[in-house]
Structures are given as structure tokens and as C-alpha cells.
Amino acid sequence: MKKLLSAVTSLVMAATFVSSAFTSSLVVSAAGSVPAVQPNVSMGGVKDVTANKNASNADFIVDLVNPEDENGYWHANAGENVNVDAHIKTNTSGLTVAGFSFDITVEGGIKIAEIVKICPALNNTALVSDYNSGNVNGTSEGKDGDGLTVTDGNLFYYTFNVPEGTPDGLYELNFTKTELLKADKTRHNVSVQKGYIQVGDVKDTTTTTDA
Number of helices and strands (H, E) in the chain? Predict the structure, then answer.
């Protein structure tokens, strides 16, 4: 009887050990690969900020991050306008673009007030804009119809109006359509880095869990 009880006890302890080890490995793996992030503000339309990790294979990276702000945000108060620059970087030198079309969106009822009608990164090529849809488009065929070489730097200049009564918070800017066309009308591979307009004061409550 004692041998049977001992064997059962050993079996239970072994099962407990295996279960504990399996659970522990899951927790460590999750914490090590996916940081736990809390939103900066708990309100509709506001997102936590995460970096785009899929840019390594792109021909071009376009971003809406403010390079002059430590958090990368564009700042305004309710009832004010805010200027936003879209930037572009080439992953491979010498690439040409013969046409482009982009749709920009912003959360929280924030509207486009102005779009400067040139594209600096494409030799100040003229562009056509639609404030309602957020679309900008144009052609840059160059002398031989093979497009223009893209210069790293400013792609588009926007001005947004933040309506009166807009709650303080972070409001996402994003390109929902990104077309940079080659001379044969096929598309370059484009990666997008979202931006954010910070309205008023936002307390930073972002936390991360290390492995």
C-alpha cells in the first residue's frame, strides 16, 4: 500500500512540475517578444503608438512622424490648425517614380484645411488634391517618360484643422492608399509609418514589460 501511495504521489508531483514549467515558458516567451502596452489615453479615437516594423523590404518608406518632437507627435489645441509634413526615404538609391496617388486619413473629426500643391521629393512636381477624400495624386514622367528620381525628404505638406471641442488626446494619421508607380505603371513596394496629432495635454501612461 505504501509503495502504491508513493508511486501516486510521485506521479502527481511530476505532472505538477511539467504543468508549471509549461506555463512559465509561455509567460516568459510572451513577455519577451510582445511588450505589454497600455494606451496613452482611454478615449475613443486615440491609439497607443507603435513603430512600423515591416519597412526592411520596402522600396520606399513614407512617414507622418514629426522628426522635431521627442515623441514624434504634431501638436495643436482644439480650435487650431496644425502643419504636418509627410516624409519619404528610399531603401535603394536611384529608384524612379512616374506617378503617385495617396489617401490620408485622420481620426477625431480633424479635417484637411490645406495641401501645398507641390511634391518636393519629386523635383517639386505639381499635384492634384481632394480635401474631402484626402487624396493627392500626380505624374512625374521626366524627360524620357521613365520617371523622376526620388529625393529623400519632404513628400507632402498638409494643414489640418482641429475643431473646437475636440477632446485632448492622440489622433492617428495614416495613409490608407500608397501608390508610387514605375514607368511601366507597376507599383513600388511602399511602407508606411503612422503619425499622431496630439491635441492639448496628454499624460503619458505607456508602460512596457521586459523579459
Answer: 1, 15
